[in-house]
């Protein structure tokens, strides 16, 4: 399997947060623990205010909100309950549901493309 194939199939889980958000602060450690539970997926903590260049004009009204993508295809974008079990169940089921797409598919795809095209991708995707 080539590295390009790996990138095309790579799962990306991005928590869209804000430093001022108390719920986000409480959710960060459980989110990081999920990263150890799903080592085949890449987890990203993205502060939407620090990284407006990547978040764009995305209007997040509920924190935490999450973007889940497989390769270059967004599979979910929206708020999740701040309980790691909710996101864990979603991450277990999405690979089984090839047809799953976010309700706001265009917005999700645009966000994903900005993430993938960021000049400092390694910094953004930590």
Automatic annotation (TrEMBL):
PANTHER family: THIOREDOXIN, THIOREDOXIN-1-RELATED
Gene3D superfamilies: Glutaredoxin (3.40.30.10)
One Pfam family cited in the UniProt record for this chain: Thioredoxin
CDD domains referenced in this protein's UniProt entry, alphabetically: TRX_family (cd02947)
Domain called Thioredoxin: residue spans: 1-117
Superkingdom: Bacteria
Protein name: Thioredoxin family protein
């Amino acid at each position: 399997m080539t590295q390009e194939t790996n990138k095309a199939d790579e799962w990306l889980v991005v928590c869209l947060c804000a430093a001022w958000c108390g719920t986000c602060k409480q959710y960060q450690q459980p989110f990081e623990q999920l990263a150890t539970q799903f080592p085949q997926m890449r987890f990203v903590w993205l502060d939407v205010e620090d990284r407006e260049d990547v978040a764009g004009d995305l209007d997040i009204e509920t924190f935490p909100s999450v973007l889940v993508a497989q390769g270059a295809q967004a599979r979910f974008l929206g708020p999740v309950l701040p309980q790691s079990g909710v996101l864990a169940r979603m991450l277990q089921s999405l690979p089984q549901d090839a047809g799953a797409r976010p309700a706001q598919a265009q917005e999700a795809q645009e966000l994903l493309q900005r993430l993938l095209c960021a000049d400092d991708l390694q910094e953004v995707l930590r």
